[in-house]
Amino acid sequence: MPEDETILPGQNCRGRDLSGRDLSGCNLQGVDFTEASLTGANLARADLRGSLLVGAALNNANLTEAQLDGADLSAAQARRTNFRKASLAAVVASHTTNLGGANFFQAVLTRAKLSKARMKGVNLEQADLSGANLAGTQLVGANLERAILTGACLDAAVLTGANLNFASLKGASVVNAVLERISAKEADLQGALFLGRSNLSNADLQGSNFTGCNLTEANLDSANLTGANLAGAVLALARLNSAALRQANLARANLQGADLQGSYLVRANLAGAQLQNARLRRAQLKGANLAGAQLQNARLTGVDLSHANLVEADLSGVHLKGGDLRYADLQAAELPDALLTRANLTGTRLDGANLQSARLIGANLTAASLTSANLQQAHLTGACLVGAQLNQARLDDAILLRAQMNDASLVGCRLVGADLSRAYLSGANFSDAHMQQAELRAAHMLGVRLRDAQLDEAYLNRAYLTDADLTAASLRGANLCSAELTRTQIEAAQLTAALPSNNPGITAHRLRRLHEWQEQLLSRAEEPDDAAALSDLAHHQETLEAEQERQITEFSSDLEDRMLDTDGLLSVCDDLLSAFDEMLDDNLQANGHCEDHLRNCRRVLAVMTDECEKSRQLILSHHEGLKTIFEMASDGEMEIDDWDAVEMSLEILDFNQRNCCLISHISLLNSCFWQWLNPYPFSESAAEPEG
Questions:
Q1: What backbone torsions phi and psi does residue 676 show, to the nearest 5 degrees?
Q2: In angstroms, what is the C-alpha Rg of the chain?
């Protein structure tokens, strides 16, 4: 075609070679350029509305500010073509259309049909793609900075590494889109639909707006969502492993079943968020706001929730094993059946929280505030509650074995049926506490305050109550066998039917008093005017018999426990002796230094074994004898002179109890021996005994 030939609107230019032609500003409406060659042509400001460019070659052509509304670009080749500020509203493209590297800066592509088109590396900066169909389109590495994609369809589109910074995707559909490693800083994705496991892994989404977005099952692993707004977003079953969500807004977001393991949520806002069954193992939530959040059955093992706000949050059944909750605010939070084993709750506020049946084994609650908290049936074995505030708390049937509660405040709390055996309670304040039927066996209660406390039928046998204050306390039916009551204040205490301490001096005195009361009642019963004495006598007789039976049972059980401990200790000794002998036999060639160590250790152990056997024999020899003495006392067959025999037996037993501390020495020897042995290559047959 001659270069000076004018092309008229609607003209047929099918297959013509117009390469390099200057057609700038021409009116080319409706022209048929099917399979025409316009490579390098100048079509700046040309009017190509409604034209047919099917299969046309437009590579490197200049279409700056051209009008292409409604044009058909199916199968067109427009690589590196310049569409700067061009209007391509409702333009049509096909899966064979190649627009790779084209420049659409500030171009208008509203309602464009670009489904499955190849647009790799295309520049769409500030372009208007509102309502455009980009489903399945290849936009790898494309520049969409500040582009408008409101209501656009990007389903299954591939935008790997694309730049969407400050872009607007309000209400856009991004179902099954590949958005891996994209950058969408401060992009507006409000109301966008990301259903179908959209891949946003490693994407940079800092400050982006995802308000109300549906990101169900989306992949956001390692994505950067720092400061992003995800308020009300649906992220159910989404993957956010190691995602950065620092100061992100996730208020009221739906994260049910989401995987947030290792995610960084420091100071994030998750108020009212739904996190049921979410996985947050090793997540960083320091200072996060989770007020009113739903975290039922969430997995929070090893999570950092220090200084977090969890007021009125529901953490029922959560797994917080080893979690860090230092100084967190959990007031009125729901934590029933929660797993908090070895969790750090130092200084945490749990006032009014529900921790019923929670497992807090070995947890650190130092200086924690648990005023009016519900800890009924909670398991706190070995927990540290030093200086904790538990005023008015409910701990009925709780297990606090070996718990450290020194200087804790439990004024007015309920501990009915609680087990505080071997607990460390020195300096604790239990004033006005309800501790009926509580287990306080061998508890360390030096200087403990129990003023006006209710300890009816409590078990305080072998408890250490030196300098304790039991003023006006009620101990009706309490068991104080072997309790240490030196300098204990018991003014106005109610001790009716209480079993006395049976350590030397106290047991004899208490048993004397029991029979003195009985004699007084018998004297009163003989007087005709004292009819009530007969009733009191019958009641006292029943009480005395019940008390004596309980005392014999308790004493026998104590002796049996000691016997079992001693038998177990002898078994350990036997195993260790066998191990020493075996190693000495197998290693006669070892150097003299090692052999001397072995023989010295064995010699010390042999002495300890002999002492342990003596302790065992002492227990055995006094077991039946002491039972007989107590049975005689219950039948009233003992004379006052016989109490010397009771005191002597109890002194021997007390000496034997001190002997039982050999177990700690032998355990230490066992541990030190094996640590010492490890560096030396002795025979493999010399294995550590199970004991």
A1: -70, -35
A2: 42
pLDDT at position 498 over 60: no
Please give the Cα distance from 295 to 278 (Å, whole number): 7
Tell me if 186 sits within 8 A of 167, measured CB to CB. no
Classify residue 470 as left (phi > 0), alpha (psi -120 to 50) or beta.
Answer: alpha
Contact call for residues 368 and 351 (beta carbons, < 8 A)? no
Other beta carbons within 10 Å of 526: 8
Quick check: 273 pLDDT over 60? yes
Contact 492, 504 (CB under 8 A): no
Residues 6+ apart with CB under 8 A from 518: 537, 540, 541, 544, 636
Tell me the whole-structure pTM to 2 decimals. 0.65
Within a 10 A sphere around the Cβ of 680, how many other Cβ atoms? 14
CA dihedral sign, ordered 208, 209, 213, 216: positive
First-to-last alpha carbon distance for the chain, in angstroms, is 103
Euclidean distance between CA atoms 226 and 185, whole angstroms = 9
* Helix/strand/coil percentages in the chain, nearest 5: 20, 15, 65
Interval 214-257: pLDDT, tens: 888 888 999 999 999 999 999 999 999 999 999 999 999 999 99
Dihedral over Cα of 564, 567, 572, 573: its sign: positive
CA 542 from chain centre, in angstroms, equals 52
- Cα 4 off chain centre by: 80
- 8 A C-beta contact, residue 463 and residue 441: yes
CB 108 within 8 A of CB 90: no
DSSP reduced 3-state for 420: coil
Query: Largest Cα–Cα distance in the chain?
Result: 148
Beta bridge partners of 447: none
Taking only the tens place, the pLDDT of each residue in 12-33 is: 999 999 999 999 999 999 999 9
Q: Give backbone dihedrals phi and psi of 619, rounded to 5 degrees, phi first.
A: -60, -45
Q: 433, 503, 419, 508: which is closest to 462 by C-alpha?
A: 503
Please name which of 318, 400, 309 lies closest in space to residue 363, comparing C-alpha atoms.
400
